[in-house]
Amino acid sequence: MARDTPLSAAASAAAAPFASQAAQGRDPHMKQRSLAQLRHGMAFKFLIGMGAMAATVSLAWGLFYLHAFGFDTPPPSRTGAFHLQLIFFTLLMFAAMAATLYFMLRRMVLLPIRRIIAGAGQMADGEHDSLLQMQTKDEIGRLAQAIHRMGQAYIGSQHELHRQKNEYQRLFELVPCIISLQDRQFRLIGYNREFRDHFDPTLGDYCYHAYKGRHEKCENCPVEKTFADGQAHYSEETGRSKDGATTHWIVKTAPMRNEHGEIIGAMEISLDVTHRKALENKLAQSELKLIQAAKMATLGEMAAGIAHELNQPLTVIKGAGNYFMKKIRKQQPIAPAVLAEMATEIDSHVDRASNIINQLRQFGRKSSTAAAPVQINTILQNAFEMFRQQLILCEIAVEWRLAADLPLVLAEAGRMEQVFVNLLLNAKDAIEAKWRDGPVAQDETKRITIDTQVQANQVTARIRDNGVGVPAHCRDRVFEPFYTTKKVGEGTGLGLSISYGIIKDFGGTIQIDSVPMQYTCFTLCFPIKEDHDRQGCPPIAADSG
Ligand SMILES: Nc1ncnc2c1ncn2[C@@H]1O[C@H](COP(=O)(O)OP(=O)(O)OP(=O)(O)O)[C@@H](O)[C@H]1O
Ligand SMILES: [Mg+2]
Question: How far apart are CA 473 and CA 364, in angstroms?
Answer without folding.
Answer: 34
